[in-house]
Amino acid sequence: MTELVPYLVALVVALPLLAGALLQLPRTPGGADRLNAALSLPTAGVALALAAIALSRGGAEALRGDLYLVDGASGVYLALIAVVGLCSALVSPVYLRSAGRSWFSAERSRHRYYGALHLFWGVLLAVAIAGNLAVAWLLIEATTAASALLVAFSGRRDALEAGWKYLVLTTLGLSVSLLGIVVLGLAVSGSGHSGLRALDWHALQAVADGLPHDATLVAFVLILAGLATKIGWAPVHNWLPDAHSEAPAPISALLSAALLPTVLLVAWRLKSTLEAAVGGGPAGALFLAFGLASLIVAVPFLWRPLPWKRLLAYSSLEHMGILALGIGFGTPLAIAGVVLHVAGHGLSKALGFYAALPLLRGDPEAARRAPAGMAALSPPTATAMGISLGTLGGLPPSPLFVSELLILLGGMAAGETAVVAVAAVALALGFLGLLHALVEGVVGEPGGRRFVRRRGERPVAVLTAVLGAALVGLTVTGLLLPGSAFVETLARGSL
Amino acid sequence: MNDVLVGAILVLGLGVVVVRRRSAALGLVALQSLALGIGALDLASERSSEFVVASGVLLAKAAVLPALLLVVMRRTPEARLVAPAAPALARLAGAGGVALVAAALVPPLGLGDAQTEQTAVALVLVGIAIVVARRPTFLQLLGLIVAENGLSLLAVSVPGGLPYVIEIGALFDLMLVVTVAAAFTQRIHAELGTGDSELLRSLRD
To answer: What pTM, to 2 d.p., does this model score?
Structure first.
């Protein structure tokens, strides 16, 4: 099957771009919806096929080609982005039917939306298999342009504010990253290697031992600090709650479940690649610092009665912090936790944002206030919200309960007892905050709120069943991960 | 690159911190981009043909981006100048301080030319300072370009040049981002009747 990989890599990038172009052609909104559904399936199918090949190889060496790299981590990310992208594309008509005003003219808004969505999806898939640091940077920067337009799609004042903030802050952050890449390029060329291929992940890893420590450390810090703005790590997370809450719900799902962790994959690969040059201590310490800062900043917001999508946004900050801790610990147990957490967080967070579709259609005021008593108002919406919140809070037996446990145990194995203690307290507080939101928002009293039940409930009910089953499957898989060849290879960081 | 040219590129960036009129700021950024392109072309004679192409693209950027932004500026007329967030002298002192701190703290980056290294890092920071200190979205957009010019200065000064794919790719991304940012600027102006980013502060927890 590996001989198919170069073709699948080409298709996984080309299909969504082609879809984005073709989606400018339909003459009616219904035609655009149908073509969107038809074109989403091949993209997801090819990405899942590539993911299956990557995952079936277990602990085998990564497959490399011209500027691409397909390893176990790519497999997990491709599968996640494929599933979330497909779900977002399929539920988008539910959003568009009730979107009202838009940045674009009424007759072209669907076309522009779908074009940007498929472009964003395609570039995200490409980041997951980028085999070169500079190419990964270029792709991440390209996600900004497409996703900023989607964040501000409604054209409302708040959406414009969120989109502008996202565009400016992440572009500045990525400028700092590029500065680091130039510094790294200097260090690499000083060691006798040059050209674009010198920045391939495996080429960098091969020469890392001989790179100058100080210059490489400066480059590492700059690149990671810049990526942190896009991952949404505290303290450079300001854009995150605004963009997630103002974007259309299917786009919020892609931002939180796919974009943030995918940029984090690049940061993870950077650590694996340059650890030999900068030292495991400083590299890990930076991840731990970002991780703890994100957890500590996020937890107080999880206790506040925030609007649903804003609560999910702060939960993203918390979960990106947990992932940073796992990568910072770097032990096989922690890495097993990271892999499981990426998938579990992605699916449950996406489900949470999809639940916002019927929620906001039934009660538009929910965009500005915390939900209450949804079980009495809309059982399908409440089920999706409950499964999402329960999983995100780490309620047993959710996969995030297993993954957080693995990450904390991995931290103990790494000898980072103090960090583990602080993280455990923060996680417990975050759990209680989300449990409070679950009780009040889902099973509590509606408090006289009005909710008009509409058609948006049905697709979300289907997604709840599918993603809920996938989450159960993930919990079982998570129990098998520790000690597997797949995780041992990832923990070694061999690219 | 010629020391005078490097110094001029920094001074032009600092000018964007000070001037009040958008047209003046745009002129300064256009000049800065042009100076950068000329400096790169000057270096190109000693380098590969790929670098010549990259230098040409830099020069094209110096023409295309200001032209695009000129159109944006004309489409978003301001009835009166947006009130500054701080006096010009305070803004200059802040940005100048940032540039000086950068010069003092930046460790050797491996270029072998401390002035260019310090100027490049200072320009990135000045670009960030422009975004933070200037209220009009149009000027914030120019701040992004100033920061990117700092990166280009460092990139073209790398002995032998960075791989041209990176330089051209980064320029393509910049064009993409600036185009989207220009669309935002117009939309924000249409929504608010002004490009004052101070009015975009309603999202808080």
So the answer is: 0.94
